Amino acid sequence: SKLTSLGQLEMTWRSRVHFHPLLVRVLHKSRLRYYGKPEKKLDMPYQAYFEVADGSGMMSMVLWNSLCPEWYNSMKVGTVLLLEQYAIKTSYPFKTQPTPGDSQMKRFATIEISLNVRDPPTKIRIIPEETVKPEWGLPEVKYRFITRSELDDLPNNHSCDVIGLVTFVGRAERARKREHGEDFWLYRWAHAIDGTSDQPFILELFATSQPEVFEHIHPMTYLVCTQMRVVRDLTENSSSTTYLTTSNESQIFITGWHKGQPYTKDTKVKNFIQWTKTQSEADQMKKTVIGGYYPFPRPPNNFLKY
């Protein structure tokens, strides 16, 4: 059938009501958002953002309401989609923006693709990776993996991906989203090493929309975290409090979930796997810790400084 591109959509969307089908690859995926309120009678008040791309550039795509339980888990980073009967809207200005792995990619930020159950009812088809043809010109998923030795030189809020061997994982903790609200963020701390430094990555992992992964992070698993943000205490001794925290588009993977993920082709991931083959499992096991209270960043040694 006749396809359109994201670039053509941006130029012609105001003058059209019906759009030709789109063929795109998912490059980023946000956590699932629940926006239900007691006074609003919506059956499934869910929403999820994706960043999708074709040969012309990248654009946001929003999955709405009952399409979320049906499609959210199937639309992985790297998945190729054929979309028909979608809507185009002006983009929401306050949403978070992931950092693209390919800094040269053009971003269409004025509009977004809207996928709904009706008005119009969107048709979504997942194209199996083995049938994707090179001539379609779909971009590959690119990552920004860093090693632990590179972390100390990165600025605050820098976006990166990491892989490491988990040596510590804390219990799940809760923090209020707002001071007097009833909603909580769920998070846990983890340490992971990659052999490039004596220090581990310190990771603040908020519960993403992957409970089956978040709940099963344990020592000795290979942990991949994407779209992490560097948090650096800019006030005093900055090197002591550098850690990484999840963003709205972070994805977390542990041993058992890596097969078929696009990052398995990345050079730094391959280097890490080579390093793990040189390590003695028994030696690493002795250094691992699980659970307990983890106060971080650590308070000063004495009350005067505090």
Automatic annotation (TrEMBL):
The lineage of its organism: Eukaryota, Metazoa, Chordata, Craniata, Vertebrata. SUPFAM superfamilies: Nucleic acid-binding proteins. It holds the Pfam family RADX. InterPro entries: NA-bd_OB-fold, RADX. This is RADX protein. It comes from the Eukaryota. GO terms for molecular function: single-stranded DNA binding.
